[in-house]
Amino acid sequence: MYVIVVYDVNVEFVNKVRIFLKQYLNWVQNSVFEGELTEAEYNKIMSHLEKIIKKSNGHILCYIVRDKKYLKIDEIGTPKSEITNFL
Amino acid sequence: MYVIVVYDVNVEFVNKVRIFLKQYLNWVQNSVFEGELTEAEYNKIMSHLEKIIKKSNGHILCYIVRDKKYLKIDEIGTPKSEITNFL
Protein backbone atom coordinates (compact mmCIF):
# COMPACT_ATOMS: atom_id res chain seq x y z
CA MET A 1 0.00 0.00 0.00
CA TYR A 2 1.14 3.52 -0.79
CA VAL A 3 0.39 6.07 1.90
CA ILE A 4 0.40 9.86 2.16
CA VAL A 5 0.31 11.25 5.71
CA VAL A 6 -0.50 14.92 6.35
CA TYR A 7 -0.51 16.23 9.89
CA ASP A 8 -1.29 19.41 11.82
CA VAL A 9 -0.10 19.11 15.45
CA ASN A 10 0.89 21.58 18.15
CA VAL A 11 4.44 22.85 17.70
CA GLU A 12 5.85 20.88 20.65
CA PHE A 13 4.84 17.62 18.91
CA VAL A 14 6.05 18.47 15.39
CA ASN A 15 9.56 17.07 15.83
CA LYS A 16 8.28 13.99 17.62
CA VAL A 17 5.94 13.18 14.70
CA ARG A 18 8.62 14.00 12.12
CA ILE A 19 11.32 11.82 13.69
CA PHE A 20 8.83 8.97 14.14
CA LEU A 21 7.47 9.06 10.58
CA LYS A 22 10.96 9.40 9.11
CA GLN A 23 11.61 5.79 10.19
CA TYR A 24 8.96 4.56 7.74
CA LEU A 25 8.21 7.21 5.13
CA ASN A 26 9.79 9.94 2.99
CA TRP A 27 9.45 13.52 4.14
CA VAL A 28 8.26 15.42 1.05
CA GLN A 29 6.89 18.69 2.42
CA ASN A 30 6.50 20.59 5.66
CA SER A 31 3.87 18.32 7.24
CA VAL A 32 3.66 15.66 4.56
CA PHE A 33 5.18 12.18 4.40
CA GLU A 34 4.63 9.52 1.78
CA GLY A 35 5.83 6.00 0.89
CA GLU A 36 5.23 2.27 0.68
CA LEU A 37 4.05 0.52 3.84
CA THR A 38 2.97 -2.97 4.77
CA GLU A 39 -0.37 -3.34 6.57
CA ALA A 40 1.53 -4.09 9.79
CA GLU A 41 3.69 -0.97 9.46
CA TYR A 42 0.63 1.15 8.73
CA ASN A 43 -1.21 -0.15 11.81
CA LYS A 44 1.86 0.47 13.94
CA ILE A 45 2.12 4.06 12.70
CA MET A 46 -1.55 4.74 13.22
CA SER A 47 -1.61 3.49 16.80
CA HIS A 48 1.50 5.53 17.65
CA LEU A 49 0.08 8.68 16.01
CA GLU A 50 -3.22 8.22 17.86
CA LYS A 51 -1.35 8.48 21.17
CA ILE A 52 0.33 11.70 20.06
CA ILE A 53 -2.91 13.20 18.78
CA LYS A 54 -4.73 12.46 22.03
CA LYS A 55 -2.12 14.52 23.88
CA SER A 56 -1.94 17.33 21.34
CA ASN A 57 -5.48 17.68 19.93
CA GLY A 58 -3.88 17.69 16.49
CA HIS A 59 -5.20 16.34 13.22
CA ILE A 60 -3.85 13.65 10.90
CA LEU A 61 -5.11 12.50 7.52
CA CYS A 62 -3.84 9.36 5.81
CA TYR A 63 -4.55 8.80 2.12
CA ILE A 64 -4.04 5.20 1.10
CA VAL A 65 -3.98 3.50 -2.29
CA ARG A 66 -3.60 -0.25 -2.55
CA ASP A 67 -0.98 0.16 -5.24
CA LYS A 68 1.03 3.21 -6.30
CA LYS A 69 -0.02 2.56 -9.89
CA TYR A 70 -3.42 4.10 -9.01
CA LEU A 71 -1.72 7.33 -8.00
CA LYS A 72 -0.35 10.15 -10.15
CA ILE A 73 1.82 12.76 -8.44
CA ASP A 74 2.41 16.23 -9.89
CA GLU A 75 4.88 18.64 -8.35
CA ILE A 76 5.42 22.38 -8.77
CA GLY A 77 8.47 24.08 -7.28
CA THR A 78 10.97 22.48 -4.93
CA PRO A 79 10.77 21.42 -1.29
CA LYS A 80 12.29 23.77 1.27
CA SER A 81 15.98 23.11 1.99
CA GLU A 82 15.47 21.82 5.56
CA ILE A 83 13.56 18.93 3.99
CA THR A 84 16.23 18.06 1.45
CA ASN A 85 18.97 18.39 4.14
CA PHE A 86 16.99 16.18 6.56
CA LEU A 87 16.84 13.35 3.96
CA MET B 1 -10.52 12.49 -10.84
CA TYR B 2 -10.02 12.92 -7.11
CA VAL B 3 -7.23 15.26 -6.14
CA ILE B 4 -5.33 16.08 -2.94
CA VAL B 5 -3.30 19.30 -3.03
CA VAL B 6 -0.66 20.02 -0.37
CA TYR B 7 1.27 23.27 -0.48
CA ASP B 8 4.10 25.06 1.29
CA VAL B 9 4.30 28.70 0.19
CA ASN B 10 5.68 31.90 1.72
CA VAL B 11 3.29 33.40 4.26
CA GLU B 12 2.26 36.34 2.02
CA PHE B 13 0.88 33.85 -0.55
CA VAL B 14 -0.94 31.50 1.88
CA ASN B 15 -4.26 33.35 1.77
CA LYS B 16 -4.07 33.82 -1.99
CA VAL B 17 -3.64 30.06 -2.50
CA ARG B 18 -6.31 29.25 0.07
CA ILE B 19 -8.96 31.56 -1.40
CA PHE B 20 -8.18 30.33 -4.90
CA LEU B 21 -8.33 26.60 -4.07
CA LYS B 22 -11.48 27.07 -2.00
CA GLN B 23 -13.34 27.76 -5.27
CA TYR B 24 -12.70 24.19 -6.43
CA LEU B 25 -11.76 21.98 -3.47
CA ASN B 26 -12.49 21.31 0.21
CA TRP B 27 -10.07 22.67 2.78
CA VAL B 28 -9.34 19.74 5.08
CA GLN B 29 -6.18 20.75 6.91
CA ASN B 30 -3.80 23.66 7.29
CA SER B 31 -2.21 23.40 3.82
CA VAL B 32 -4.27 20.60 2.39
CA PHE B 33 -7.21 20.65 -0.02
CA GLU B 34 -9.02 17.72 -1.59
CA GLY B 35 -11.97 16.99 -3.89
CA GLU B 36 -13.37 15.95 -7.24
CA LEU B 37 -12.11 17.83 -10.30
CA THR B 38 -12.59 17.60 -14.02
CA GLU B 39 -9.45 17.48 -16.18
CA ALA B 40 -10.16 21.07 -17.27
CA GLU B 41 -10.53 22.31 -13.68
CA TYR B 42 -7.33 20.52 -12.69
CA ASN B 43 -5.35 22.09 -15.57
CA LYS B 44 -6.75 25.51 -14.68
CA ILE B 45 -5.69 25.11 -11.05
CA MET B 46 -2.23 23.90 -11.95
CA SER B 47 -1.49 26.77 -14.34
CA HIS B 48 -2.68 29.30 -11.74
CA LEU B 49 -0.63 27.69 -8.96
CA GLU B 50 2.45 27.64 -11.19
CA LYS B 51 2.28 31.43 -11.47
CA ILE B 52 2.08 31.77 -7.68
CA ILE B 53 4.94 29.33 -7.10
CA LYS B 54 7.21 31.16 -9.55
CA LYS B 55 6.77 34.33 -7.47
CA SER B 56 7.06 32.66 -4.09
CA ASN B 57 9.54 29.77 -4.57
CA GLY B 58 7.01 27.58 -2.79
CA HIS B 59 6.26 23.91 -3.27
CA ILE B 60 3.05 22.14 -4.29
CA LEU B 61 2.28 18.45 -4.54
CA CYS B 62 -0.85 17.11 -6.20
CA TYR B 63 -1.88 13.49 -5.62
CA ILE B 64 -4.39 12.30 -8.21
CA VAL B 65 -6.47 9.15 -8.44
CA ARG B 66 -8.66 8.53 -11.45
CA ASP B 67 -11.54 7.53 -9.20
CA LYS B 68 -12.07 8.05 -5.47
CA LYS B 69 -12.83 4.34 -5.15
CA TYR B 70 -9.06 3.71 -5.35
CA LEU B 71 -8.49 5.89 -2.30
CA LYS B 72 -9.02 5.12 1.40
CA ILE B 73 -8.88 8.05 3.82
CA ASP B 74 -8.20 7.59 7.53
CA GLU B 75 -8.46 10.48 9.96
CA ILE B 76 -7.25 10.95 13.53
CA GLY B 77 -8.33 13.96 15.56
CA THR B 78 -10.27 16.93 14.26
CA PRO B 79 -9.31 19.82 11.98
CA LYS B 80 -8.47 23.11 13.66
CA SER B 81 -11.49 25.41 14.18
CA GLU B 82 -10.41 28.06 11.59
CA ILE B 83 -10.83 25.35 8.97
CA THR B 84 -14.32 24.31 10.08
CA ASN B 85 -15.34 28.01 10.40
CA PHE B 86 -13.94 28.81 6.92
CA LEU B 87 -16.13 26.07 5.35
Outline the structure in words.
The structure is a homodimer of 87-residue chains. With 87 residues, chain A is of the alpha+beta class. Chain A has a single domain (2-68), classed as Alpha-Beta Plaits, CATH 3.30.70. The first copy, chain A, has three helices and five strands. Chain A has helices spanning 11-22, 39-56, 81-86; strands at residues 2-8, 26-29, 32-36, 59-65, 71-77. Chain A has a four-stranded antiparallel β-sheet with strand order 2-3-1-4. In chain A, a hairpin with a 2-residue loop joins strand 2 (26-29) and strand 3. The first copy, chain A, starts with a strand and ends with a helix. The model of chain A has no long low-confidence stretch (mean pLDDT 91). Chains A and B meet through strand 1, helix 2, strand 4 and strand 5 of A and strand 1, helix 2, strand 4 and strand 5 of B. Strand 4 (59-65) of chain A pairs antiparallel with strand 5 of chain B, so a sheet runs across the interface.
Task: Offer a quick outline of the entry.
Chains A, B: InterPro entries: CRISPR_associated_Cas2, Virulence_VapD/CRISPR_Cas2. The first copy, chain A, is of the alpha+beta class and 87 residues long.
